[in-house]
Amino acid sequence: MRLPSSTRTPPPESRISVSPFAVQLNFHGDLEFFVQSRTSGRRIERGLSEKTSVKDVIEACGVPHPEVDLILINDQAVDFDYLITDKVVIEIYPVKSGCTKFKQKCLQLASTSRFVLDGHLGKLARDLRLLGFDVAYDPEAEDRELLLVMERENRALLTRDRRLLMHRVVKTGYFPRSQKAEQQTIEVIRRFDLLGSITPFTRCLRCNAPLRKIPKAEVMETLEPLTKIYYEKFRRCTGCGQVYWAGSHFSKLQKRLEKIRADSAG
Ligand SMILES: [Zn+2]
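Above: inputs. Below: predicted complex with zinc ion.
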């Protein structure tokens, strides 16, 4: 796999060719999911002919760097810029791999509740907002806009575009393994330790702004006759003004939330 320049570590001034050598990469835990190898599974050998950053070697195997939490070379933890110049064995661990001995050397943020999602993850964006999380989502956004929002607003990037996740400006990100929104939501809750931070129905599903409780009288005139009779509690979006109440879809949503909560804890 040839990586685009946006993902590669800028070459150091002293970059020089060296005699060709081979490195061995051992991918642990669920990083196997990304490894593009038909025969060798989680162990990969690669030939190099110049000094190369460990980030570039790992990503050439198909594993985006935000998925990597710990890199060990000769039992020493190294960061993504570490230059490989000779034959070595590289051990690569995912987030939450239980490698407590090197906890101080972890490369990834353990927890965050602010996200930016790529345009293909609309259902995940809705689910996360439903749970009260701060989600920037624009189905029309191009890659560079996603990266801009990510950097400017200090958000974690969620995407199933591996190349995008490999971009060198990405500090925190995640590639949802599942293609189903519900399972993706559970994955994100687990990855970013969000179970204790869920506050359902506090954020607008349309625009992401917080909701504010409002007295029924404030919206009385705009309500349908049956809504006027059956519902007492209302919230209004502080951004777009959308009014929410516990309508007929509410119990269905609540059931989904309970299932997500239970599955995430499991
Ligand atoms: Zn809104």
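The mean pLDDT is 90.
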